[in-house]
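Researcher: Structure for this, please.
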Amino acid sequence: MRSKQQMRRYVVAVAAAAAVGAAAFWYALRPVPLSVVAPKRGDAAEIVYASGVVEPRVWAKVTSTVRERIVEQCNCEGERVETGDALARLDDTEAQAILGELQARLSLAQEEYRRKLALAERNTISEQTVDRARTDVAQLEALIAGQEARLAAYVLRAPSAGRVLGQDGEIGEVLAAYVLRAPSAGRVLRQDGEIGEVAELGTVLFWVGEPRPLIVEAEVNEEDIPRVEVGQKAYLRSDAFPERALEAVVDSITPKGDPVTKTYRVRLGLPEDTPLRIGMSTDVNIVVRLSRNALIIPAAAVSGTKVAVVKSRKAMLREIKTGIRGTNGVEVLSGLEESERIISPLPPDLADGTRVDVVRTEAK
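Model: Predicted structure, token format:
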């Protein structure tokens, strides 16, 4: 038979086990503390994000096509210039010397050609000899024309008729050789380089254009560009004006994208009173679709197409149909009443019918 002490230990053990079981049962059935929110009415916008830079609508870069030292330069940054005004001159000493040598050789070749032509008239030399002399003159004339062209500015022209699919320069952009001139009337927006420095090939020494109107030139990913259209409104954010609402309108879309970056260039027109300045960077949000007075819930309250509403202190999972989805909110098209309260954030492992304890309610 068991002793009284053993019986006492047995009773204590049973009581302890019962207490642990009761605690586990209570823990399993205890209400889960959660917060709920109410759906709100507002405008839901589907946006396409891009980054852009503020630029003048009309402007041109003046670059050097030869590697020479700067010997003259205007001090005209911020000032207005007219078309053809000289902005800078590069050292053309060597080029002029080459031109002089070619001209001297041409004079000798022309004299030799005239002499041989006279001899041919007396039938003392062959026609082939005259032809070679004529060819020498033509070759030197071509070399002189080329050298004279390098000593002057020239404008790029289209090689054939057709639609411009992409444009990296601007209207009137001039590639100067030894004399850099203003390609159009406007203000010198920026000036680089100093007298005595060597201008490298392709170096931009002047930006000439009009400070107004301004545009934002943005790069949009190729997967987003089919949704972007001319006339769509865009909202901008600039670090220079963090608290100011900035707007723009899609002005044009380049027909040809960049196959390397996989982006398309989109230009957005800015209002005349914009505080943005040339060269500032901006974050661009193009509104491609807008739903007015939509029923919106927090994005954290949605898992796929499921939400959880609170009924009689229980979480009831609900399938909804969604529309526009954003980083902060989701448009609800059907499956949810405006008067219902939903759990937000929605726990990933919340089971249907779970008892909940609402610890915070966000007012409508």
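Researcher: Any notable elements?
Model: Confidence is low (pLDDT under 50) at residues 10-28, 153-176. The first strand starts at residue 32 and ends at 37.
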